[in-house]
């Protein structure tokens, strides 16, 4: 059981914020990893539950009574739920942690120490590995309609010097500044959150941390990837309870498309949205041609056809990415 690590007279060094949605089966493992990693750090725990229908609330109330628990009557989305925790935060640093992300025994100490030694670091991410130990994209470039197209179409090999969103060609063994880091382990200064805010509530799921890192960098802070500890990230555990998962990234297609369009509208305007849609359609057409020629069966290209249909539906539903649907 997690003991309350912070008395009423102590100011915590880290406020750990966790958004839970039907992942009660992961809570014990997540908290056990945090307990083993906290060492001498003063930590407070804040969990926002997005109307889970499993036994999450029972587990949290019975086994972790010292955790500040916010119970939502409905699923408000990942970004909005994190924003709800802001008034409760007292720590110098804020750690946004997924329920399916498990810290190593040295993760908290090392990353907090790095932040303390690098006062211009506003957001810090770490090396992410899957349950099988395989490296996951941990240090990323901002998406553009063009680099998203290159990745989806498989034509990136023709543009070897172009920066893809997920650059996996380096050794991931050195500290480096980057555009953005994934939100499954997202360590930020409270000072930064007070200055630029946290997540844009228009994103129900996905792209929150991309958008936030843009704001952090625009305010003059650094976003840094730190490789000297690992966090095991399963990925997609909350998402898979709420819809069909795509094979790539195990993400919900409609929500991912919506967030992508909202992001491009915010930073590239209508022309960026139209460019993204046109290039994504082209990537799907190329995929259909490739798969059909390879197998001589059109049904092998069904995923590309479904993606095209979903993108058009989302484009209309969001009024060309002017507003979210949820």
UniProtKB/TrEMBL annotation:
**Entry's Gene3D superfamilies?**
Spore Coat Polysaccharide Biosynthesis Protein SpsA, Chain A
Ranges for domain Glycosyltransferase 2-like: 15-132
Q: Does the keyword Cell division apply?
A: no
User: Which keywords has UniProt assigned to this entry?
Assistant: Membrane, Transmembrane, Transmembrane helix
Domain of life assignment: Bacteria
Q: Which residues form a coiled coil?
A: none
Q: Which residues cross the membrane?
A: 267-289
This chain belongs to the protein called: Glycosyltransferase 2-like domain-containing protein
Supply the source organism for this entry. Bradyrhizobium erythrophlei
């Amino acid at each position: 059981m997690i003991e309350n690590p912070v008395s009423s007279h102590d100011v915590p060094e880290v406020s750990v914020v966790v958004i839970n949605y039907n992942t009660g089966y992961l809570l014990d493992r997540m908290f056990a990893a945090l307990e083993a990693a906290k060492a001498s750090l003063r930590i407070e725990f804040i969990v926002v539950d997005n109307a889970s229908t499993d036994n999450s609330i029972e587990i949290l109330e019975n086994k972790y009574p010292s955790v500040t628990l916010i119970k939502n009557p409905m699923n408000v989305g990942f970004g909005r739920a994190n924003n709800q925790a802001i008034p409760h935060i007292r720590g110098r640093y804020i750690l946004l942690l997924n329920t399916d992300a498990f810290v190593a025994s040295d993760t908290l100490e090392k990353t907090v120490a790095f932040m303390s030694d690098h006062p211009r670091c506003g957001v810090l991410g770490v090396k992410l590995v899957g349950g099988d130990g395989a490296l996951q994209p941990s240090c990323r470039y901002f998406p553009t309609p063009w680099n998203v197209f290159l990745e989806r179409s498989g034509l990136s090999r023709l543009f070897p010097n172009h920066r893809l969103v997920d650059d996996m060609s380096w050794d991931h063994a050195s500290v480096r500044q980057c555009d953005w880091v994934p939100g499954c382990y997202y360590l930020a200064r409270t000072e930064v959150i007070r200055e630029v805010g946290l997540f844009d509530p228009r994103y129900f799921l996905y792209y929150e941390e991309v958008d936030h890192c843009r704001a952090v960098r625009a305010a003059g802070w650094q976003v840094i990837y730190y490789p000297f500890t690992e966090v095991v990230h399963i990925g997609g555990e909350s998402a898979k309870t709420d819809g069909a998962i795509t094979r790539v990234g195990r993400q919900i297609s409609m929500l991912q498309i919506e967030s992508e369009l909202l992001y491009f509208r915010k930073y590239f305007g209508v022309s960026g949205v139209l460019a993204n849609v046109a290039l994504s359609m082209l990537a799907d057409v190329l995929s259909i041609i490739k798969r059909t020629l390879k197998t001589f069966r059109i049904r092998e290209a069904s995923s590309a056809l479904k993606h095209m249909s979903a993108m058009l539906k989302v484009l209309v539903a969001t009024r060309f990415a002017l507003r979210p649907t949820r």
